[in-house]
Amino acid sequence: MSRKMSIFTAAFVALVVVLIFGFQHVKQGIIADKLADYSPPPVSVTTVSASTDVWVKELQAVGAIVASQGVNVTPQVSGQLLSINFSSGEKVEQGQLLIQLDDSLTQAELESSKASLQLSEVDYKRKKELRKTNNISQSDLDRATAKLAHDKASIKGIETTIDYMAIKAPFSGVVGIRMVNLGDYLTPGQAIISLQNLDVLFVDFTTPATNLPLLKMGEEVKVYSDAFKGSEFSAKIIAIDNIVDQESRNISVRALLDNSGGDFLPGMYVTVKVETEQKNEIIPLPNVAVSYSLYGDSVFTLTKTDEKNATGEFYIYIAERKTIDVVMFKADRAGVSGDIQPGDIVVTSNQQQLKNKARVIVNNDASKQSSAGE
To answer: Start and end of every CusB-like beta-barrel domain (predicted)?
Structure first.
């Protein structure tokens, strides 16, 4: 290749490079100018107007239903199960015979002991008379006296054993599903049946010890259960524990629940709400209006401008994030205080698309139509 051709080729390549970089530079400049002039379309949101209200402080906790009287009926002595005198799930009365163990051998021992007692009584009376005339020694009379007392005690012990073999209901209540069958050999402490008094139940729950000044004996407690959605039950506080749990720093509370309707069973979990006498002036907002964060809770409020959107249908608002404190909850609302005032326009949707100074439009009518359609 000649020198002239080489120079021409190099010049051509340089020209192409200059043109390419020049085009890119012009292109980037145009893009930058466009971006500088670009304004994102306003975000469509729904809102509510903030207003003040007075809420009674409400304590809420998870409670457990406990029987006022409940026990697993067990035998106190060993024996073979001779008869079952109840049906699973039925109501029984205090003192009613539930289980009879085979006491035939013990009954025979009782008869033998009674015969021995009769002989001891005769021997004691005879020796007592002989002692009056000094025909026997005092030690002979003492032995007869001791033998008589021993035989009486033996009979009393056997009668107690026989009574233990007839297992009775310690209190009135409802029995569960029996865990034994005829012919089983039962031992002391073996579970036979669960007996629960279901007419009156306890609702046990815990609450932080800081709430102790808000709790009062006899105060009404509202009880709710997922098993009875939409229903509210009433109980009354009958006991507040005298010690705070060292690990959780909670205090235990017990409320009395009338269960004459038979709605609840021991072991069920319920939601407990206690309305205290403490009143707080707050601003109630829908829960969806609050953005919850480890760094603090907040809401977006809006300031109206004179500008309208491209279609001229809505005014443009400017969003501002404000820090708030959530004082309490009630149903689907949060009672808040902090950097928010009555009359503020508070955003209730699309907060994830907002930041400070973001431009928004308020379209509450569209929200209502959407909700109606759903």
So the answer is: 205-277
- Centroid of chain to Cα 247: 18
Residue 182, pLDDT > 70, answer yes
- Is 180 in contact with 186 (CB distance < 8 Å)? yes
Six token digits for residue 329: 């909850």
3-state helix, strand, coil in the chain (%, to 5): 30, 40, 30
For residue 52, give both structure tokens: 């003040």
Read off the pLDDT of residues 79-133 as tens digits, 9 standing for 90 and up.
Answer: 999 999 999 999 999 999 999 999 999 999 999 999 999 999 999 999 998 988 8
Alpha-helical runs (H) found in the chain: 3-37, 104-132, 138-165, 364-373
Residues 273 and 205 in one domain: yes
Tell me: do 185 and 93 sit in the same domain. yes
Q: Is residue 288 domain-shared with residue 253, that is, in the same domain?
A: no
Among 321, 319, 324, smallest CA distance to 340 is for: 324
Per-residue pLDDT tens over the stretch 259-283: 988 889 999 999 999 988 888 899 9
pLDDT at 38 over 60: no
Q: What's the CATH number where 144 sits?
A: 2.40.50.100
113 CB burial (10 A radius; 0-12, 13-18, 19+): buried
Q: Token pair for residue 70?
A: 């409940």
Taking alpha carbons only, the member of 158, 273, 306 closest to residue 205 is 273
**Could you list the residue range(s) of the whole structural domain that residue 299 is in?**
43-55+281-373
Q: Quick one: 235 and 345 in the same domain?
A: no
* Residue 37: CB atoms within 10 Å: 7
Dist. CA 19–CA 154, nearest whole Å? 123
Q: Are residues 64 and 213 both part of a single domain? A: yes
- 3-state secondary structure at position 41: coil
Q: Do 203 and 64 share a structural domain?
A: yes
* Integer Cα distance of 327 and 341 in angstroms: 15
Residues 147 and 131 occupy one common structural domain: yes
| pLDDT category of residue 33 using cuts at 50, 70 and 90 | low
Q: What is the DSSP letter of 316?
A: E
Q: Are residues 88 and 164 in the same domain?
A: yes
